[in-house]
Design brief:
Layout: H1 2-21, E1 25-28, H2 47-53, E2 59-62, E3 65-67, E4 70-72, E5 82-86, E6 92-94, E7 107-109, E8 122-125, E9 128-130, E10 137-140, E11 146-148, E12 151-153, E13 164-167, E14 173-175, E15 178-180, E16 187-190, E17 197-199, E18 202-204, E19 211-214, E20 226-227, E21 230-232, E22 235-237, E23 244-247, E24 249-250, E25 253-255, E26 258-260, E27 267-270, E28 282-284, E29 287-290, E30 298-300, E31 316-318, E32 321-324, E33 335-337, E34 346-348, E35 351-352, E36 356-358, E37 363-365, H3 367-374, E38 381-382, E39 390-392, E40 397-400
Parallel strand pairs: 1-2, 2-5, 3-6, 4-7, 5-8, 6-9, 7-10, 8-11, 9-12, 10-13, 11-14, 12-15, 13-16, 14-17, 15-18, 16-19, 17-21, 18-22, 19-23, 20-24, 21-25, 22-26, 23-27, 25-28, 26-29, 27-30, 28-31, 29-32, 30-33, 31-34, 32-35, 33-36, 35-38
Antiparallel strand pairs: 36-37, 39-40
The protein binds calcium ion (2 copies).
Amino acid sequence: MQRKLAIAAALLLVAFAGTSALGGTYYVATNGSDSNPGSSTQPWLTLQHAVDTIANGDTILVKPGTYNGCRIRYTAAAGSPKTLAAETAGTVLINAPGALAYRPSCIEVIHDDHGYTPVDYWVIDGFEVTSSPKWGIDAILANHLTVTNNVAHNNGSLGMYTGIHLAFGDYMLVENNTSYSNTEHGLYCNNGADYGIARNNTLYSNGSMGFHMNGDSEQEGSDGIMTDWLVEKNKSYNNTTNGFDGDGVEYTTWKNNLTYGNVSKSLHLFVLNGEVNPRYLRIVNNTFINKTGSYYVLNFYLNKKTSKLPGGNDNKIFNNILYHYETTNTMRGSIMGVSTWMSTWESDYNLVVDRFAVNDNKTKYTLAQWRSTYGLDLNSTLCLDLTQAVVDAANDDYHLKATGPAVNAGTTLTDVTDDIEGTSRPQGTAYDIGCYEYH
Ligand SMILES: [Ca+2]
Ligand SMILES: [Ca+2]
């Protein structure tokens, strides 16, 4: 009987999916009219009319051209998303907020100016978003939001604002976007948002971080903790502060990511606005390259105020390239830890320079001292010349050299099944270190 019930439930799901697949498709074009029916031959004119009009399961396709943005204010439903998409990715430029903008940002997903009412299950796909006074794409309490295939650049003329800013919502998917030269961050997910995925985004030359994650307990409605994110296959480079960070983040994985050329750290884990110190994190198979003048590659930070918060425990650091160009400077290095947290950590099979520290550089170690003091990185590989490990560091090609020290020098990780380019792991005799598997 139980099996029959399960089959019936499965059939219901199929029927439901079939219904949503039959949702209507509507069009917007620069020569359209909002009094048209929204068909391909009689399209609408404005994005705002389109997003206000469609029903659950419907899709809006925007024809090539330049448009003002919109405020998405009505929710969709599980199994019946509403989609706002460029008919052809890269041919639709949105370079100003819409008439109903609150924030103002080019594409807003927010019900009202309080943001207390969720606007869920939307898909935003394929737009070039630029020249916003504040944020480019900007969502406040949009659960199950998908933001994909967009390019956000040169946004934030009124101050420090982010290309793609997604606050409060759980289960968000941010995939295949490029965000560059915005006045603040490339990608910013915050206000306690949980269960998100940031995958295959390219984030560069932003005024602050590539990807900023912030629990942000100061915002009403936020629990101050970012729980259970997957951050994978992203590239974050040449940003003005850090490549990645996490403020109040737990149970989160960074894997197969690449950083280089960022001004401060590759990955910074701390509490400023969050409510939990970094705990239960997996930092695996990343290539993190820190340039001259930057701080530690992987940096954990605890201060007097945040020492009253829970966390800091059970972090795992495997198979990463943690390279710093200043291999002899005692103020920079591969990992900055926190001494009171590290008895619960595991760190090994990384490619490192000969410098580690704890407690914001109060105590510094060589690799040998780090091993004997904490028992970490016993099988890690010392590398004082990156050109031995990667193909062409001077031109930012961090694929591995066949004969380099990172090839087949990692450990088997069952949650890392491929590399940043989709090459299955392992190739050869063992896992490689870093985001690229040599093949
Ligand atoms: Ca949360
Ligand atoms: Ca290998």
